[in-house]
Amino acid sequence: MLFRTIGFVGALAAATRAVETKPSIIYILTDDQDVHMQSLDYMPLLKKYIADEGTTYERHYCTTAICCPARVSIFTGKLSHNTNVTDVVAPYGGYPQFIDQSLNSNYLPIWLQDAGYNTYYASRLFIALMTTNYDNPHAAGWTSLDFLIDPFTHSCWNATWQRDMDPPVSREGTYNTDDLANKTASFFFVGTAPVAPHDEVVMNPITFNGSIFSPDDPVIRPQITSPKPAERHAGMFTDLKMLSISNVILPTILWPSGVHWVSRLPQLNQTIDEMAEQIIQELETLDIADNTYVIYSTDNGFHVSQNRLQPGNTCIPKGATTDMVTSHTDLAPTVFMMAGIEPKSDFDGVTIPLTEGEIGEGTRAEHLGIEYWGLSIVSSLHNKSSVGNTYKGIRVQSKDYNMYYSVHCTNEHELYDMTVDLFQINNLLPSGTNGTGMPVTTYDNSTASIIGQPLVKVSRLDAIMMVIKSCKGETWINPWGVLHPEGGYDDFYMKSIEQTSVSYSICANGYLVDAEGPQDSIIYQEANWSALI
């Protein structure tokens, strides 16, 4: 498969050389790959051909850590509360919600085609793109496509593919990631999205009723099982142990039920590692590597984003790392910059600095908003889920501090100093008598502190979360400028949080404005929030 993927590139390389007015872009998007379990340490080819030749963004985050919302943010440059795709399946997510929100005519491949690019995609696009709805309508914007189709997307050895306008075809007996295929011509954008290292999801085709999940029916409900590597990688890393957390004792219930197959995850990444090598080698053979960007990331969880372009005054630094804060919403604006397209005014993200000069001179925001709706699903043989997992969070991160603040739909509050508490063990906002966290009105009386500051300063975090939880565009990029033009307003923030703070009325499984508490922030100088948007 990997040779076929590159073979299609080679078959039309002459056309590429003829119109090298714009760079080509290749985006490798993995599925649920981690960083904190050191998965990249077991991908030497990725390190050799991409990481060592490009720049690693060590603080690149996903703002909604579940597959479909994360991918929609990548393709639209928008936060999930602005796409209203907040889950993996209907009624709040998946391919049907992507269509219902009119995004099929307003996302990255459409915009790139308008700029003259040929666009190609292989493997998984969104969950709930199924054998029953793949043509209702077809995903728009792709010069050619080859999609993995549910209910067999995550079947390691029984995947179903759907190419262009053709009906789906089963590839039983062929390893899923090995079966990728791409075509490309002229200057191009290629998205290749292997499902590894995602768990295997097994569907029963006899009882499958067109719904990708039916959690209340154990007969229809899919079984999430141990993922399987390609046969040639099955004997690798057999003595690997899960990364230990030193000096931390966690209750047994917190350890993942799937821990017995954690050691297999590096095996699953080997086909991706081989694919990365062959992509770069073929680009170099065709003499088009110097005009091609390569981006590597995963869709949700902990992320790494890497880029590569020709040497020279405008090159991406070789073997470099940067700790600037970036997110998935920044990827579409960055692709626009690569392609020489003017950014859209409604992007929630901003361009990621790429060259050494840009990285050195760039000033990035320190904040990152986090949002999640719906069930908490455990990857295990029993496929259990629990309700009440909707929350908002905010990371504020720099060279000097690293804080995380969140409000759950139960109105519990959490605050962590992640400089000293990376695994979020010590909540600095312990539960009050009502079990919903310390009341915000008691912050100014607390003896607790964070980064040497009194807890009352949390009111600033709540105020900025109040803005970004429902904002868009420039307001997301610079929320402090919305709240006030200058600093030094602790009294204002404390009064603000006493009057209107982040809270929920119910634990909804999707983005329902009525469930998400107050929407209008208190603005300094008594400006009305609604007048600013």
Give the termini distance in whole angstroms.
49 Å
Q: Name the shape in a single word.
A: globular
Supply the helix-strand structural class.
alpha/beta
H/I helix tally: 15
Q: Would you tell me the overall average pLDDT? A: 74
How large is the share of residues in beta strands? 15-25%
Helix content: 10-25%
What's the story with the biggest beta sheet? 7 strands, mixed
Structure overview:
Residues 23-320 form the Sulfatase N-terminal domain. It holds the Pfam family Sulfatase. Keywords: Glycoprotein, Hydrolase, Signal. Helices cover 22% and strands 18% of the residues. It is of the alpha/beta class and 533 residues long. The chain is globular, with a radius of gyration of 23 Å. Residues 1-19, 181-186, 246-259, 301-313 and 523-533 have low confidence and may be disordered.
Sum this structure up briefly:
By secondary structure, the protein is α/β, with parallel strands linked by helices.
Layout of strands and helices, then pairs:
Layout: H1 2-11, H2 13-18, E1 24-30, H3 44-51, E2 55-61, H4 67-76, H5 80-83, H6 94-100, H7 108-114, E3 118-123, E4 144-148, E5 160-163, E6 169-170, E7 188-193, E8 200-202, E9 223-225, H8 265-268, H9 270-285, E10 292-298, E11 302-307, E12 320-327, H10 331-339, H11 356-361, E13 367-372, E14 376-377, E15 385-386, E16 391-397, E17 402-408, E18 413-417, E19 449-450, E20 453-454, H12 458-468, H13 474-477, H14 479-483, H15 490-499
Parallel strand pairs: 1-7, 1-10, 2-12, 3-4, 3-7
Antiparallel strand pairs: 2-11, 4-5, 5-6, 8-9, 13-16, 14-15, 16-17, 17-18, 19-20
